[in-house]
Amino acid sequence: SMQKRLNRMLNSSHDHKLLALMDVEGFDPKEVTVTVKDGKVKVLAEHKEEHTTARGKEYNYKNITKEISLPPGVSEDEVTYSL
């Protein structure tokens, strides 16, 4: 299977600096939320599944959260990410 990774890139004086790498294999891109607030980058990956079986409904839920502090001198609007 193709491995999906969340790359957190920082653009500082024309250099791309990698702040964090996060494995989000098994999550759909639309299930991944990234917010930048109060000098922190928060990543939330959330996956919910519902199956109806002979015994009734079965639910599958998994999530990953990660919080990364921005290095000094890096402003929140400089943060970019790619999936």
Automatic annotation (TrEMBL):
Q: Which InterPro entries match?
A: A-crystallin/Hsp20_dom (IPR002068), HSP20-like_chaperone (IPR008978), ODFP (IPR037389)
| UniProt GO BP | cell differentiation; spermatogenesis
Supply the PANTHER family for this chain.
Answer: OUTER DENSE FIBER PROTEIN 1
| Entries under Pfam families matching the protein | HSP20 (PF00011)
Keyword annotations: Cell projection, Cilium, Developmental protein, Differentiation, Flagellum, Spermatogenesis
Compartment list: Cell projection, Cilium, Flagellum; Cytoplasm, Cytoskeleton, Microtubule organizing center, Centrosome
**Family, per the entry?**
Belongs to the small heat shock protein (HSP20) family.
Q: What does this protein do?
A: Component of the outer dense fibers (ODF) of spermatozoa. ODF are filamentous structures located on the outside of the axoneme in the midpiece and principal piece of the mammalian sperm tail and may help to maintain the passive elastic structures and elastic recoil of the sperm tail.
Protein known as? Outer dense fiber protein 1
- Can you list the GO cellular component terms from the UniProt entry? centrosome; motile cilium; polymeric cytoskeletal fiber
**Ranges for the SHSP domain?**
1-83
Question: PROSITE patterns of this UniProt entry?
Answer: SHSP
